[in-house]
């Protein structure tokens, strides 16, 4: 057929997800289905993801979620060209559930298996919403990761910078927790910030202006958590939320600025598409998006973020990364192991 159709499975954190994606030879992706069961309610009482609860919930949900994704896609197992599953990095108990389930489907239906790096899924996620050519510069900001990547193609990415302590989403979550906002903290903090004005708070600006592309959020986390104790009114809390959001957005944009300069210098500019893509859960934040977009424009870079639904964890991005790999003949052995750590 003139296209590839791939079932993708994602179980590396707290969403059980399955999706069917179709990819044409020239890189046009169509999401035929994308089903996500969020475990947020299972973990909310603990203020964060409990690995054992997550793994058990994936076991319970994976078959039903996959069945729904297959029904909605309406192509039948015979219409699939491959099965892609997240093989890491992430909570290994959960990763094993999706990967083992994917192996079972692949074996039962005689389909190739593609083990996908979760980060590579986020890296291609903007291609689910628009035609995006390689190469591009990627800011990957999620609960577990905060990296700047030179993305030359599938399986061909190099890291320009990373966090030396917390990830950006982790900073959102921890500060939100200190403010009593519950889990996950990022979206709650963004909602609260909408009615706040952070100008009265002076938060630390880590690494600002430094020449490398690394991140650090621990100083901000400590300062904001201390200020949270002094907040008396709802307005105080909203003002602090706005200050925190602005500080995180500023750091992401300052480090991306460094990376844009390095990326543009790495080769004759005409050879390299000047495009900054942001992906991962934190890419859902509107202040983060608008700050990055303005910075990119100042450097002559275009800017793109995935559709909101594909910023946080989903299986469509895993199916697409799998399809892109399959297109290049990059399949995986059936005994591929789950990897809790797996740098790109
Ligand atoms: O990509 P993701 O779903 O999971 C990981 O791979 O980590 O990202 C989840 C992270 C959480 O830290 C969450 O608080 C953050 O993304 N997040 C946000 C927003 N939506 C999700 N952070 C700030 N603003 C948001 N609107
Ligand atoms: Zn993720």
UniProtKB/TrEMBL annotation:
Cofactors: Fe(2+)
PANTHER family in the cross-refs: TRNA N6-ADENOSINE THREONYLCARBAMOYLTRANSFERASE, TRNA N6-ADENOSINE THREONYLCARBAMOYLTRANSFERASE, MITOCHONDRIAL
Stated role: Required for the formation of a threonylcarbamoyl group on adenosine at position 37 (t(6)A37) in tRNAs that read codons beginning with adenine. Is involved in the transfer of the threonylcarbamoyl moiety of threonylcarbamoyl-AMP (TC-AMP) to the N6 group of A37, together with TsaE and TsaB. TsaD likely plays a direct catalytic role in this reaction.
Pfam families for this protein: TsaD
Record-linked InterPro entries: ATPase_NBD, Gcp-like_dom, KAE1/TsaD, TsaD
EC number in record: 2.3.1.234
Family listed: Belongs to the KAE1 / TsaD family.
Acyltransferase recorded as keyword: yes
Gene Ontology MF, one: tRNA N(6)-L-threonylcarbamoyladenine synthase activity
Cofactor note: Binds 1 Fe(2+) ion per subunit.
Protein name per its UniProtKB record: tRNA N6-adenosine threonylcarbamoyltransferase
Compartments in which it is found: Cytoplasm
Amino-acid positions noted as binding substrate in the UniProt annotation, renumbered to this chain: 140-144, 173, 186, 190, 285
Organism in which the protein naturally occurs: Brevundimonas variabilis
Taxonomic superkingdom: Bacteria
GO CC terms, sorted: cytoplasm
Residues where Fe cation binds: 118, 122, 313
Catalytic activities: L-threonylcarbamoyladenylate + adenosine(37) in tRNA = N(6)-L-threonylcarbamoyladenosine(37) in tRNA + AMP + H(+)
HAMAP family registered for this protein in UniProt: TsaD (MF_01445)
Record keywords: Acyltransferase, Cytoplasm, Iron, Metal-binding, Transferase, tRNA processing
Domain Gcp-like: 30-319
One GO term (biological process): tRNA threonylcarbamoyladenosine modification
């Amino acid at each position: 057929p003139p296209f590839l159709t791939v079932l993708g499975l994602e179980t590396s954190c707290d969403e059980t997800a399955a999706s069917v994606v179709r990819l044409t030879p020239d890189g046009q992706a169509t999401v035929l289905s994308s089903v996500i069961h969020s475990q947020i309610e299972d973990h909310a009482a603990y203020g964060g993801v409990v690995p054992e609860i997550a793994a058990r919930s994936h076991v319970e949900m994976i078959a039903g979620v996959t069945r729904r994704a297959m029904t909605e896609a309406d192509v039948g197992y015979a219409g699939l060209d491959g099965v892609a599953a997240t093989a890491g990095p992430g909570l290994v108990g959960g990763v094993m559930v999706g990967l083992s389930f994917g192996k079972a489907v692949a074996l039962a239906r005689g389909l190739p298996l593609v083990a996908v790096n979760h980060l590579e899924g986020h890296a291609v996620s903007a291609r689910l919403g628009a035609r995006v050519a390689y190469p591009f510069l990627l800011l990957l900001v999620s609960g577990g990761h905060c990296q700047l990547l030179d993305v030359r193609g599938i399986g061909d990415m190099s890291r320009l910078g990373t966090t030396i302590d917390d990830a950006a989403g982790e900073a959102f979550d921890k500060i939100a927790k200190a403010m009593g906002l519950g889990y996950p903290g990022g979206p709650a903090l963004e909602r609260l910030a909408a009615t706040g004005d952070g100008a009265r708070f002076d938060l630390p600006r880590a690494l600002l202006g430094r020449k490398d592309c690394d991140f650090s959020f621990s100083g901000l986390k400590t300062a904001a958590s201390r200020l949270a104790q002094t907040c008396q009114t709802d307005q105080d809390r909203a003002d602090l939320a706005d200050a925190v959001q602005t500080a995180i957005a500023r750091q992401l944009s300052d480090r991306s600025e460094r990376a844009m300069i390095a990326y543009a210098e790495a080769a004759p500019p005409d050879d390299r598409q000047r495009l900054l893509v942001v992906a991962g859960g934190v890419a859902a934040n509107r202040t983060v998006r608008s700050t990055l977009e303005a910075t990119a424009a100042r450097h002559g870079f275009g800017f793109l973020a995935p559709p909101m639904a594909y910023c946080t964890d989903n299986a469509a991005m895993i199916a697409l990364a799998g399809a892109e790999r399959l297109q290049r003949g990059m399949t995986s052995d059936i005994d591929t192991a789950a990897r809790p750590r797996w740098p790109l």
